[in-house]
């Protein structure tokens, strides 16, 4: 079953989660072609920030022409054309990509949890940082990412408009051990960029930083949490399911076959 065939009966929830997801991880450049949302970010290679996002299953006019225009726009940014296929993607567009042999480039599960299930805790044992530069340095070290990504990641986080908590766990003689971002948007909170340093994975740090972020958001008024986790990341999926997260829908990235 493809991402566009799942959860058709719950499209309002999908639409809302897509909208808060875009706000939580903003692209540098946003354009519309009808209901197709183009997100492009020259400073960061994230597929979520560099993809076409169809938002109306009934918007199927001029598919070939629009895909050609999209390819040109992405090429101008030095990015490959990617369509982010969700339950909102028109089935006719999915069939078009299938017939043309478009490859699937990664699948992601969107999950939600009710914060009422969190353990009762009247306080915060870990306060978020306001220092974006410090958080970005910690995230790059924890994830083992290329330090060249720092300017782009800093720009993305600074562009987040909803209230944001930057969580950094550290040890004095080691440095950062775990990180997470909590983006509080009305009654929802998104958890992004959660990571644990390789040497300490499996020690409970992932659960600790996740719960710290969720407790902060709950005190801010959030009632439900959402995450987007890659389908092949078994450890992360297990972490979120232990915390009460359940699958809502999936999406994948589709790109034209190489010539």
UniProtKB/TrEMBL annotation:
Signal peptide: none annotated. GO terms for molecular function: acyltransferase activity, transferring groups other than amino-acyl groups. Keywords: Acyltransferase, Transferase. It comes from the Bacteria. InterPro entries: Acyl_CoA_acyltransferase (IPR016181), GNAT_dom (IPR000182), Rv0428c-like_C (IPR056935), YpeA/RimI_acetyltransf (IPR050680). Residues 122-259 form the N-acetyltransferase domain. This is Acetyltransferase (GNAT) family protein. It comes from Shinella granuli.
